[in-house]
Amino acid sequence: MKVTVIGAGPAGSTAALFLAEAGVETELVDKCRFPRHKPCAGGLFNPLLYYRDFPYLEDVEGVYIHEVRFRCGRHAAAYSSKKPLMKTLLRSDLDHFLLKKALQAGARFSLAEASPPESGTRSLHANRREGEVFIDAAGARRAQDYPRCGICLVHDFKTDEGTGAAQVHYGFMGIMGYCWLYPKRGYANIGVGAYMPQKNVREVYRTYVEYLFSEGLVSIAKKDLRNMPHRAKILPFAPRAHFVSGGSLLAGDSAGFVNPSTGEGIYFAMLSGKFAAKTVIEKRPLAWYEAQCRRAFKTHLAPLRFGNNRALLNRVLERAVGMSAQDERFKKMFAENFFRLGSHNLSGRFLRNLVSRVGL
Ligand SMILES: Cc1cc2nc3c(=O)[nH]c(=O)nc-3n(C[C@H](O)[C@H](O)[C@H](O)COP(=O)(O)OP(=O)(O)OC[C@H]3O[C@@H](n4cnc5c(N)ncnc54)[C@H](O)[C@@H]3O)c2cc1C
Q1: How far apart are CA 163 and CA 80, in angstroms?
Q2: Which residue has its alpha carbon closest to ligand 1 atom 35?
Q3: Which of 38, 63, 275 to mutate to test the pocket of ligand 1 (most atoms within 8 A of CB)?
Q4: Does the CB atom of residue 89 touch ligand 1 within 6 A?
Q5: With a 6 A CB cut-off, is 43 part of the ligand 1 pocket?
Q6: Domain ranges of the chain
Q7: Is the pTM here over 0.85, yes or no?
Q8: Other residues' Cβ atoms within 10 Å of the Cβ of residue 66
């Protein structure tokens, strides 16, 4: 049997690694030459969780973040933890590292723009009989392919600093989402992510970078302030109805596996790549792949259920940050939810419970 994996991001390279290790003939196709740039904050939330499932990730160079400052409206709260909250890295390093692992295991790489088999023309079962299977790990498609999407802008600004606290600023300029500053080695990663529709995302971004600069929260050269990213990226904020399309298994962003509260997607991409490989290797039914993904991701990818009520969401978050400033236990829970450190997660259910906790 031959497997073609389209896209060599975290989902595709992980699928290719597991397939090649199992002795399956695997071809990994990407339209970009590696190492390649990928717009991303590059945060592995709860790195210990990543190492549990993918221990080799410990070898990727990065910075461990132990402190975060949350801000919303007039409230601010700082939280620090002995356990790392996050490991930040450059996506060009991570993705190149993962691709090299897949190649070392025996996968082949082709530089080409590929299209997965068209929906309805072939089925995965038919492909299996013909001895050819496709895994579509080509990243996020068009916004209309997902029930809900976010819009993001991000840039790695060069800086001499690179360690210190992460900043998470909810509802900046009234957006339904958050702006962030994640320190990296030699860079300050600054971004904004908001639910669509969000009209003035470039203006929000520029204002946030200038705010960080003027408050002395980031040290970047003034000339670099002109290096604002121009193209916003879409990020799926809800999984598609099915994780199998025509002749291919969908993994990672292509399936819509991104946490709608935080935008985290690397972990879900890698895990779904692993599940896709197992489905092929163990000749499992497609329903098995769907069930594995739903079970593993269910709570993390649950919708916020705030609809488009950004005013309510931001009021809830403002109260939550305010309570965090006063109550150590609440702050720990709130911060650990964000970074998926504890048993809770910042899912729609958690936020709905917050509404009653903060008494709105
Ligand atoms: C601004 C921003 C910030 C983010 N921050 C974080 C974060 O801090 N932590 C986190 O966990 N997640 C974050 N994410 C989400 C994360 O980037 C994605 O969930 C993750 O990259 C998904 O991996 P993937 O392998 O599915 O897709 P991708 O990483 O997008 O890889 C897809 C690959 O497919 C290739 N490709 C596309 N089309 C074709 C084609 N037709 N033929 C051949 N090759 C093709 C592309 O070149 C690419 O290499 C962020 C996303 C954005 C936009």
Answers
A1: 14
A2: 7
A3: 38
A4: no
A5: yes
A6: 2-39+90-145+240-297, 310-357
A7: yes
A8: 16
